[in-house]
Specification:
The structure is a single chain. Helix content is 33%, strand content 13%. It is α/β, with parallel strands linked by helices. The protein folds into two domains: 103-354 and 361-372, Mur-like, catalytic domain (UDP-N-acetylmuramoyl-L-alanine:D-glutamate ligase, 3-Layer(aba) Sandwich), CATH 3.40.1190; 381-389 and 402-436 and 465-632, Alpha-Beta Complex (Protein-Tyrosine Phosphatase, Chain A). An eight-stranded mixed beta sheet has the order 8-7-6-9-5-10-11-12. Strands 13-14-20-17-18-19 form a six-stranded mixed beta sheet. Strand 7 and strand 8 (175-176) form a beta hairpin. Helix 5 (179-195) crosses helix 6 and helix 14 crosses helix 15. The longest helix is centred in the middle third of the chain and has 18 residues, at 329-346. Residues 1-74, 391-402, 433-461 and 552-558 have low confidence and may be disordered. GO terms for molecular function: ATP binding; metal ion binding; tetrahydrofolylpolyglutamate synthase activity. Keywords: ATP-binding, Ligase, Magnesium, Metal-binding, Nucleotide-binding, One-carbon metabolism. Its EC number is 6.3.2.17. InterPro entries: Folylpolyglutamate_synth, Folylpolyglutamate_synth_CS, Mur-like_cat_sf, Mur_ligase_C_dom_sf.
Length: 634
């Protein structure tokens, strides 16, 4: 088979050119380059399907078919795309400096990539909501998407990071982009950029590529609105190539990414306010005075009409509940409401939809539906592990029987402020506080059913008389400060009467320098990871619990050997009141050798003792949360 293309086709249908082996390093069967995969015609799903010559004939006279194309198949698998993405990672771990090379600055590079793909002139047409912040920007963007989708608009949502699969970053109308469409857009961008690589303009680093890909997807999918979450900071973030958003938002600010953004709140606020554009409306939430002063100054310089969005009042929900749990979500929801109202008004959609018959204090029904159904994984998420049920269930069906004595409470909190919010949510959730939960947890049991971007809920009566054990499953990156995170978690939980029976410290399964999918093979080296960081976390934990240093007599070698042996099941059920150090051994915690073994160990413990319900808070790292979700889904 041989295909020639001497011009690009309208709507980016299909063009093949340049049969050079060096153009494609990630093909499995054949080495050739796809310069433009289909992205405007739904019928052309070439990733796993054959393409007839009749389809080719309809594409125009510029294509000459030398053989019957009945056996044509794009030779790029999903895992191959993940390998290609991994090759764009320029840092081994967070905190390392990224070296890209070339003569262009970061945003100049972004502009060049957009020009190569022919996207630059189309970005303004996306009618973008651009959101920066330290805490809650993902939740705010998710609320915005759900609200505008309920208003009948075609929505695109770009967020980061992903937890299980990179496709989570790209939502179309509330759903993760399909694997077929992802591959079409991915390889189209990849090959066009690869073809134009020079010494002065190398391939984009990972996040820049994903940002360009998001613009590509949303433009080709013809969304009415694109909600774009800033990756890091604002001023120099890859998303800040956006020149004319409809409205901008800044969520709550705090101390995070200080190695990049600066070690004061003023420095951080300056970066976040860098997304403001001249005379484009912007909203923020109540901030500490140091941060607010910087935001106001930046708004003044650019003549930005800036307003502080009021927190949403529970009474405004007309008896409904926010779908995202935690009191802090009322702040995020309030910002989302202000952003959506402004967007609808500036684009002329408010009058079309509501004909000005909505009172200022009232929320339209579409807003209420969006706020009560928005979903984001890994933030205040509760998952019942159906593997511990006495019966076997199809993961796509809802069981009517009570089950699940191993419950995971997942929140990717990794800053002091978000850790405090996480602790309040967890304490409220395990105590069945009706005001903080989106479902009636005190009298009902929630089982989550995995779907593409949506979670369905099944309500089932909980069994009375269960002994509840709260367990912490924790890890954080070494650029975080656990001496702030862990005490904040413990003290906030304790103030609500919640105390952890045990703490388990475990290395994450994923690695910073590799992009994986939900189907990726678990790396074999996870059982031989360096656990020195986990031992540091354990030592800190025991000091917090006992108020003094513990286990100073044991050498690291002995501890490393012990960590390869899982604790006995009895360790989990020991009364927390008896958690005292003896013989200089840790008694309130354990370092676990790997996450898969930890999940299996917890399941075995629960199955062995059916009178106990184990409530596991997974926090400290979104990577850890994603790894746990990945394992539970399997």
């Amino acid at each position: 088979m041989l295909v020639y293309a001497n011009s690009y086709l309208k709507c980016g249908i299909f063009g093949v050119s340049h049969f050079h082996k060096k153009d494609c390093h990630f093909s499995i069967r054949r080495t050739w380059s796809l310069t433009c995969l289909p992205f405007c015609v739904d019928a052309l799903h070439l990733t796993r399907r054959n393409m007839s010559s009749q389809v080719m004939e309809k594409m125009g006279n510029s294509v000459v078919v030398k053989e019957d194309l009945q056996d044509f198949e794009v030779p790029y698998s999903y895992e191959t795309a993940m390998e290609a993405l991994s090759s764009l990672i320029t840092r081994k771990k967070r905190g390392d400096k990224s070296f890209v090379g070339g003569t262009y600055g970061k945003l100049e590079r972004m502009s060049e990539y957009l020009k190569i793909l022919g996207l630059e002139e189309h970005i303004d047409g996306l009618k973008i909501i651009h959101v920066a912040g330290t805490k809650g920007k993902g939740s705010t963007c998710t609320f915005c998407e759900a609200v505008l989708r309920e208003c009948g608009l075609q929505t695109g949502l770009f967020t980061s990071p992903h937890l299980i699969d990179v496709r989570e970053r790209f939502r179309i109308n509330g759903l993760d982009i399909s694997e077929d469409k992802f591959l079409q857009y991915f390889w189209d961008c990849w090959n066009q950029l690869k073809e134009k690589v020079t010494e002065n303009l190398p391939m984009p680093p990972l996040f820049q590529f994903l940002t360009v890909l998001a613009f590509k997807i949303f433009i080709c999918e013809k969304v009415d609105v694109a909600i774009i979450e800033v990756g890091l900071g604002g001023t120099k973030d890859s998303t800040n190539v956006i020149e004319k958003p409809v409205v901008c938002g800044i969520t709550s600010l705090g101390m995070d990414h200080t190695e990049t953004l600066g070690n004061t709140l003023a420095h951080i606020a300056s970066h976040k306010a860098g997304i403001f554009k001249p005379q484009i409306p912007a909203f923020t939430v109540p901030q500490l005075s140091e941060a607010m002063a910087v935001i106001l100054q930046r708004a003044h310089e650019l003549k930005v009409p800036l307003k502080v969005a009021p927190s949403l009042d529970n009474e405004q929900l007309n008896g409904l509940k926010l779908s995202l749990s935690g009191d802090h979500q009322f702040i995020n929801a309030g910002l989302a409401v202000s952003l959506c109202k402004c967007w609808l008004q500036r684009t002329g959609n408010w009058e079309k939809l509501f004909q000005n018959d909505i009172q200022e204090a009232n929320l339209p029904e579409a807003f209420l539906r969006g706020l009560s159904t928005a979903h984001i994984s890994g933030r205040a998420q509760i998952v019942y592990d159906i593997d511990t049920c006495s019966q076997s269930y199809n993961s796509l069906k809802v069981s009517e029987n009570p089950c699940g004595d191993l419950v995971f409470y997942l929140d990717g909190a990794h800053s002091p402020e978000s850790m405090e919010a996480c602790a309040k949510w967890f304490s409220s959730a395990v105590k069945g506080n009706m005001k903080s939960l989106s479902t009636s947890f005190k009298v009902e049991c929630l089982e989550e059913v995995w779907g593409n971007g949506h979670i369905q809920h099944a309500r089932k009566s909980m069994e009375p008389g269960k002994l509840l054990k709260q367990i912490l499953l924790f890890n954080c990156m070494d650029v975080r400060d656990p001496q702030i995170l862990l005490p904040r978690l413990v003290s906030t939980c304790a103030s609500s009467g919640t105390h952890f029976a045990k703490a388990l410290f475990v290395p994450s399964m994923s690695t910073y320098n590799k992009v994986t999918s939900g189907a990726s093979v678990i790396p074999s080296d996870i059982f031989n990871r360096d656990l020195s960081w986990q031992f540091n976390l354990q030592r800190l934990w025991e000091k917090i619990i006992h108020g003094k240093e513990v286990d100073t007599l044991l050498d690291m070698g002995a501890k490393m050997d012990n960590a390869k042996i899982l604790p006995p099941h009895e360790f989990l059920y020991e009364d927390a009141s008896h958690c005292n150090p003896a013989d200089n051994n840790f008694s309130c915690s354990a370092v676990m050798p790997s996450l898969p073994l930890t999940i299996k160990w917890l399941r075995d413990c629960v199955k062995e003792n059916p009178s106990v319900r184990v409530q596991v808070l997974v926090t400290g790292s979104l990577h850890l949360v994603g790894d746990v979700l990945k394992l539970l889904k399997r």
